[in-house]
Amino acid sequence: MSEKIVVAGVSVDTRHWIGGRRIASAETFADVSPIDQSVLGEIARGGPAEAEAAVAAARDAFPAWAATTRSERARILHAVADGVEKRIEDLAIVETHDNGALLRSHRRGVMPRVAHNFRFFADWLLTLDHEDFETRGHRNHVSWDPAGPCVLITPWNAPLMLATWKVAPALAAGNTVVLKPAEWSPLTASLLADIAAEAGLPAGVLNVVQGLGAEIGDSLTSHPDVRRISFTGSVPTARRIAASAAANLTPLSLELGGKSPLLVFADADLDLAVDLAVEQYDNAGQVCLAATRILVEEPVAEEFTRRFTEKAATLRQGDPRDETTDLGPTIHPRQVEKIDGFVQRAFAAGARAVIGGSAGQDLYYRPTLLTDVTQDSEIVQEEVFGPVLTLQTFATENEAVRLANDTRFGLAATVATGDPERAERVTGQLVAGTVWVNCFFVRDLRAPFGGSRHSGVGREGGTWSFDFYCDLKNTVTAPNGWTNHG
Fold first, then answer.
1. Burial environment of residue 485 by CB neighbours within 10 A (0 to 12, 13 to 18, 19 or more)
2. Strand, helix or coil at 22?
3. 256/153 Cα distance (integer angstroms)
4. Which of 77, 115, 395, 486 has the most CB atoms lying inside 10 A of its own CB?
5. Which residues contact 67 (CB under 8 A, 6 or more apart)?
6. Is 397 a catalytic residue?
7. Would you call 474 exposed, middle or buried from its count of C-beta atoms within 10 A (0-12, 13-18, 19+)?
8. pLDDT tens for residues 102-122?
9. Which among 288, 297, 383, 470 is annotated as catalytic?
10. What is the pLDDT of residues 153-207, one digit of tens each?
11. Residue 486 has pLDDT above 60, yes or no
């Protein structure tokens, strides 16, 4: 196979990055752009042998990296961030071709956030400490010890941003990493390996292996030398990973799906509420946090629907490389089939489309809003992961909370209200890892992030990331317990 491909003028190596070297595989898989379904290139298709080599490289590099001072680790991570910032345009172009998300978003928001991920956790590392405390005169000292090799498995909807959300704290904590990117969008992970090497990250500290799902994933997640596994993706895959990790009792952090609600109360700023609702079509609806269930108080439901329809009609769907495009394509034909299957089954169950309701040309699924849906219906209960929203109404605050909590998920929720006391009451009752009030998608890396119920296990962000990626140790020293034998 060709070792490198060129994507819109940017050269990308298609081989694995293991132990500081590029490693090919005997087999490959095709990486296809969702923009026009052209083949971007053939990617090294790893399996058990590549998984073993990557874990071995991470294991061998771990002692030296764990012993590296905090300040030196932070310096190198800042150098990685510098490298990302120098290549924002390359990274943005490649990721847009690879996963179909908007080029303008990658340039202005996503890739700068990638650099910020490294800078934030590098700086947080230098402030990480617990105050010593005493127990009957004994000194307790809590420390964060690097855990060891970490396997990080990332999704295709925001490939590099979500990868570095895991890679940065894992490396900052003194661990080594094996990163397995999603097979539908593997290219920017390869560029990250180049950037990290140029920044001076020692060989074996970051390894990138590509492959198809369980072909390589099972070998990584069941490996006895792996000390942490972090995964973002679907519930079924998480179950498989958890079962694989169980034999070694490997700690897991799982950020899974969502079926988040947007609660619109009659006292809300209706224009703001409509803007929040239409924003849920971002990235063609391929956002785990998206509030796909819109719950509107009955007195304003008709007016909300009218304004929503008018606002949604202004969205431009098309080539994500165009600055004027608002919605790009769905990533893969299988995803389009999945989305349309949900919608067609909803129609068969009595749902009605206010807008959309069908696939457009190629992989461009029309923004859809469905009403006349029941709470127990599949379209309300299951994650679609596409530009499909549902609209239901409620009569009371208690009913709004009941409907909002009535799924197996608990990743996020959004509340639109003009009453701060109501906001406090409602948010206190919602089952969600993140709740936004009169806003959406405001993220601070100091805050914990994760989901409840089937939306995940554990939290990452700020100190919570270091709690996960480290072995916390408490050292207790007796008072006046020193004896001089000299």
1. exposed
2. strand
3. 12
4. 77
5. none
6. no
7. exposed
8. 999 999 999 999 999 999 999
9. 288
10. 999 999 999 999 999 999 999 999 999 999 999 999 999 999 999 999 999 999 9
11. no
Whether 441 contacts 289, CB under 8 Å: yes
* DSSP designation for 482: -
Give me the amino acid identity at 60. D
Strands 133-135 and 138-146: antiparallel
Percent of the chain exceeding pLDDT 70 equals: 98
CA count, 13 A, side-chain hemisphere, 166: 30
Q: In degrees, to the nearest 5, what angle opens at C-alpha 421 toward C-alphas 419 and 425?
A: 115
The answer to whether residue 484 scores a pLDDT higher than 70 is no
Structural tokens at position 243? 């079962």
User: Is 288 considered catalytic here?
Assistant: yes
Q: Which SS3 state, helix, strand or coil, does residue 376 take?
A: coil
Q: Which of 30-44, 129-143, 176-190, 247-261 has the lowest mean pLDDT?
A: 129-143
- What's the length of the chain? 486
Phi, psi dihedrals of residue 461, rounded to the nearest 5°: 120, 135
69: helix, strand or coil: coil
Nearest Cα residue to 367 out of 304, 479, 447, 284:
284
Indicate which residue of 255, 297, 383, 460 is catalytic.
255
AA letter at 323: E
pTM: predicted TM-score of the whole model, two decimal places = 0.95
Token pair in block for residue 342:
């949900």
Q: Is the pLDDT assigned to residue 1 strictly greater than 60?
A: no
Residue 482 identity (one-letter amino acid): W
Distance CA 373, CA 298 (A): 15
Read out DSSP for 433-471? SEEEES------TTS-B--SGGGEES-BSHHHHHHHHEE
For residue 302 the two structure tokens come to 């008709």
